[in-house]
């Protein structure tokens, strides 16, 4: 039961982030909600590779062959975080530019696309 | 569509999505009992096959090196995109801070803040380089080390202000360094392709496990990634710091 609850956490983070994005009234808030939604994937794949009582897959202090978690999902998460950070930065740059052009960050006020 | 309707619709679809998600994760292997087999195979084989204790690094820069190359270019493209978006919209800027902010916070950072910044800079540089270099031996690596090192730029901006930051960090220089880091990764791939017939095959001598120069091409690729990530984040900080400057000419 506790094990199942651990998998509920990423689902909750995902839906909460999505709700924040859909109801957002500020582009900065919207971008942060997108980051939160994305972070649910880190939690999910790390949990899939987790093993009770296991160590990190770095065999410097422990002997090779010690019970360790899945290194593949760790590697995926690592690169995922870097890419997530840069995508957030790119979106923030767009938000800056929109604010400069229109003077507002409210997505509701940006009814039409204008060149 | 007003806010109330939007929230109601989102509540309903969110609840449905949540239920769907609960049903979906119910089909996963039970928590804490990773079934394998790939992670277990790597954990058993990699320490001897590649003479490397950190299996995550081995996966990133060797077994899955092709993917990491792609992800590095996502990073590269994002930084280039940010530079394009921000510079395109920017007129000539002065190095003076925005007037309202200057009135709010007083003229400059105090000596205490500067002193603390210098201390923090030393720790950032030392720890960032330590993390970046010891990718094979410790849970470090180029991505983490490079990102941490780039805190250098943020600290400079906070403690000494934009003029000092711009003087120390050359934009043109870091553009070249970032491109060199990204290009070197691809060139290593091509060099190994020529040498062995397989892209990014680990062709160099492996050395002894746990030593600084071991695990073949892994530490070299790691260094390229570290340099690229660090220079890329420096450029990001420079671009966003530029945005706090006053514009000499009003945009039309």
How would you describe this protein?
The complex is a heterodimer of chains A (115) and B (252). Chain A has 115 residues and is mostly helical. Chain A has one domain: Helix Hairpins (Orthogonal Bundle), CATH 1.10.287. Chain A has 3 helices and no strands. The two termini of chain B are 32 Å apart. Chain B is mainly alpha-helical and 252 residues long. Chain B contains 11 helices and 2 strands, in the order ααααβαααααααβ. Classes of the chains: A mainly alpha (115), B mainly alpha (252). Chains A and B meet through α1, α2 and α3 of A and α1, α2, α3, α4 and α7 of B.
Question: Which SSEs are present, and which pair or pack?
Answer:
The complex is a heterodimer of chains A (115) and B (252).
Chain A lengths: L1 H21 L4 H22 L22 H32 L13
Chain B lengths: L2 H23 L12 H12 L5 H9 L1 H24 L4 E5 L1 H7 L5 H23 L8 H8 L1 H10 L1 H7 L2 H26 L21 H25 L2 E3 L5
Antiparallel strand pairs in B: 1-2
Helix pairs in contact in B: 3-4, 3-11, 4-10, 4-11, 6-7, 6-8, 7-11, 8-9, 8-11, 10-11
Give helix and strand order of chain B, one letter per element, not per position. Answer: HHHHEHHHHHHHE
- Can you give the helix content of chain A as a percent range? 55-70%
Please report which band the strand proportion of chain B falls in: under 5%, 5-15%, 15-25%, 25-35%, 35-45% or over 45%. Answer: under 5%
Tell me which oligomeric state these chains represent: heterodimer
* Radius of gyration of chain B (Å): 24 Å
Structural class of chain A: mainly alpha
């Amino acid at each position: 039961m506790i094990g199942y609850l651990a998998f509920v956490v990423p689902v909750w983070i995902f839906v909460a982030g999505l709700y924040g994005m859909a109801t957002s009234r500020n582009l900065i808030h919207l971008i942060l909600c997108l980051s939160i939604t994305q972070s649910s994937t880190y939690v999910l794949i790390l949990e899939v590779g987790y093993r009770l009582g296991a160590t990190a897959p770095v065999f410097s202090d422990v002997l090779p062959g010690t019970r360790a978690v899945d290194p593949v999902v760790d590697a995926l998460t690592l690169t995922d975080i870097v890419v997530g950070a840069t995508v957030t930065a790119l979106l923030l740059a767009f938000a800056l530019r929109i604010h400069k052009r229109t003077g507002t960050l409210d997505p509701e006020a940006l009814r039409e696309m204008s060149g | 569509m007003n806010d109330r309707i939007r929230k109601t619709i989102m509540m309903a679809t969110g609840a449905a999505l949540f239920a769907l998600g609960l049903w979906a994760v119910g089909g996963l292997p039970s928590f804490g009992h990773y079934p394998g087999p790939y992670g277990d195979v790597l954990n058993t084989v990699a320490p001897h096959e590649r003479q490397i204790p950190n299996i995550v690094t081995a996966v990133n820069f060797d077994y899955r090196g092709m993917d990491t190359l792609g992800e590095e270019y996502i990073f590269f493209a994002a930084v280039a995109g940010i530079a394009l978006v921000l510079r395109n919209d920017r007129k000539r800027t002065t190095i003076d801070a925005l007037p309202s902010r200057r009135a709010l916070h007083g003229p400059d950072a105090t000596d205490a803040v500067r002193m603390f910044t210098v201390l923090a800079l030393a720790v950032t540089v030392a720890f960032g380089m330590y993390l970046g270099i010891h990718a094979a031996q410790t849970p470090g690596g180029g991505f983490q080390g490079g990102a941490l090192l780039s805190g250098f730029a943020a600290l400079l901006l906070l403690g000494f202000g934009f003029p000092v930051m711009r003087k120390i960090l050359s934009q043109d220089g870091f553009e070249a360094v970032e491109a060199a880091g990204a290009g070197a990764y691809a060139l290593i791939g091509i060099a190994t392709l020529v040498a062995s017939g397989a892209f990014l095959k680990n062709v160099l001598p492996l050395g002894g496990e746990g030593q600084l120069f071991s695990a073949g091409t892994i530490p070299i690729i790691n260094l390229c990634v570290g340099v690229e990530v660090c220079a890329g984040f420096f450029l990001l900080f420079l671009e966003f710091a530029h945005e706090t400057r006053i514009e000499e000419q009003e945009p039309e």
